[in-house]
Amino acid sequence: MRKTSFIRFAVAATAVAVLASTALPANAAVKPANKAVIGDDCTAASAKAGKIAKGRGINGTDLTCMIVTTGSFKSQAKWWYKDLKPFGSVEWVASSAIGGGYGTTAIAIAEAMKTEELLKDYTVTYKTNAPLGLGYFYDQKNRKDLLLITGFAMPGGLATNGSKLSITSSNPIAGIMREAEAFVVPTSSKYKTINDLLADIKANPKTVAIGGGNYGGVDHVTVATLAQTVGVKATDLNYNPYSGAGPLIPDVIGGRVAVGVAGTSEFASYVAAGKMRVLAVTSPKPLSVIKGKTLLQQGVDLTFGNWRGILAPSDLTPAELLNQVKVIDALHSTPSWKSTLVAKSWIDEYRAGDSFTKWLKVENQAILDVLTAFKLIK
Questions:
Q1: Signal sequence span per UniProt (predicted)?
Q2: Does 28 reside within a domain?
Q3: Which end of the chain is flanked by fewer CB atoms within 10 Å, N or C?
């Protein structure tokens, strides 16, 4: 098996760990107050008494045993947030074109929220890159109905565009999942395996046109890390950045790029329709959402994944921010969200509230460090 010496930073190490399993934990039976988490079962008697699970909620808040009145848990006795206020209408900001990962993630979250009656309605505003998306988001004031999808690609997208904006200047809500990457080619491609592609990249990297998300984003880092396994530098690649998978897909199908790289869910329907073939996926095990061998199965010692999360405006009051965190925390416990994770083969990597805020600061710097090491930014 070919070994890789790619830079192992905090993000990649986490990706390996969480990509190792796609199993979703099932809610256990009735949980006592001292072990309760949001969405766990409690007893009807405890609900009638309004029993409190002190400090068991997000950021050390309390959970209450109550009869839930909305969504899949309606009429069930659950440990829940008594003061939770569902969203009305929300505008999601996605820093990609239609069909890109940020937008598809926003839609998936919003649809699950609607099913669970945690959201009444939503729209998605698309901006073509990280500076435009984050800039628009930060320019909005007194907007309690605004949320932005962020992820691995955003710090690099900001840095490579010379933007001074940072994802750490907002109110982090939650990191909600991680997704494996896929390498795809048109069905007529001469490449049958990832090693066929790597052979050409090694021989003459400038002749192999590779399409993916923004320069310095997760797709670019995935390609750079893969190229490193055959001794090719990131700066020697013929990498073509796109504003998400939406505009990339027709260029892959039409053969205008030799290979496309993006999240698995973004290519899945085109692979299923026979318009693309998968050369490899970056998960440790094959996935149900898309048919293709892993890198590991083809002798390349590499796993990788892209996380995405939710940011809220910086001018929310503490009470408003806490309610938004509670809504997403409640969503994470529901059958609708668990079904979404399974349907898309997303990994249930979840952090919320204070823990996500702390993690995001470290993650943001780790991404910039690896991009600097690859000489993709200075």
A1: none
A2: no
A3: C
